[in-house]
Structure prediction request, 363 residues.
Amino acid sequence: MTITEAQVREALTKVIDPALEHDLVSYRMVRGIEVAGDDVLVKIDIPTHAYPEALRREQGKRIESALKAIGARNVTVMQEVETAFLPAPSDKAVLKGPKNVIAVAAGKGGVGKSTVAVNVALALARHGAKVGLLDADVFGPSIPTMLGPPTKPPTAADNKQIIPAEHHGIKVISVGFFVDKGEAVVWRGPMVHRLLQQFLGDVEWGDLDYLICDLPPGTGDVQLSLSQLIPIAGSIMVTTPQEVSIVDVVKGIAMFEKVEIPILGIVENMSYYTCPACGHHDEIFSHGGGKRLAQEVGAAFFGEIPIDTRIRFGGDAGIPVVIAAPDSENARRFMDIASAAALKVAGAVLSKPKRSPRLAVIK
Ligand SMILES: Nc1ncnc2c1ncn2[C@@H]1O[C@H](COP(=O)(O)OP(=O)(O)O)[C@@H](O)[C@H]1O
Ligand SMILES: [Mg+2]
Prediction:
């Protein structure tokens, strides 16, 4: 019995991707089909490096059983990562190189935005993606402290481009590299805009799968400028479980909706505390507010991070937990949050019809 490519494609329209929960064909994940008699080879584009291993296997199994059901004898599934992204429209083409920009935001300061931004960026890199981290908190840049001394400091190239610093395999830029620690810088709206323009357009980011932007708290000039300058795939909102933090996140979400930055999901940080001495589990700020908030606003809940001195210490000492204790429970939580965010981005990209890059008008 021989099978045709059309039959294979038809069968694949009924295979639901276990991570994106849509069929493989309409989400453009089928790169190629080769049929030889009743042997079939299917090439699948995995849309992010952070696609979980267990779901890859599940996807392979689903393909195999769908094709065996139409009479295939040997089924080979080749899965290769091809990061899904939408080319920037010409009015937002400042940024060259990074495929997807993910913002990390919160209504207030001190809830762990920078901690989440740093660990999610490093987690995406550990998943195998090429990652950059832009410290867009120009008012309180904490990324240089959190990442410690760079493997390579930022430098200026001959063509006036800035070459970003490198820490633990990710590319990093922060205003903290250029002003002295403790020096207060008052940034006004237009200055913020120009600075961000430089950090986006004059930095040689190179070919990156993800650029993570650590935002200042609340909704101000930085958020507005970024949304005007570049397309942002979406934002991870960080909250602590207390009501005050949650109320501020709700305000943040409303503002992001106005500037058309989609909310990818919510992370509850400082969720609870487990005493390392006796194992007692204490919900210092009452727990679960992040999850409830996610349900109320119809956003995904990406998970919770407990209060853990090793997280604070990692941040202060310049070795974030994802690097310092890669096999720890907390590192795993950040790996999972990174996967969830990357899959949300991929799902959003693949649910849209393919946008072809428009040529920028040269004036
Ligand atoms: N889950 C956590 N457990 C312990 N300390 C944390 C945790 N998350 C953040 N911190 C600490 O709290 C402080 C504020 O976090 P940070 O990420 O700088 O917040 P933000 O960027 O929102 O202002 C930092 O000292 C950080 O190390
Ligand atoms: Mg911060």
In short: Confidence is low (pLDDT under 50) at residues 358-363.
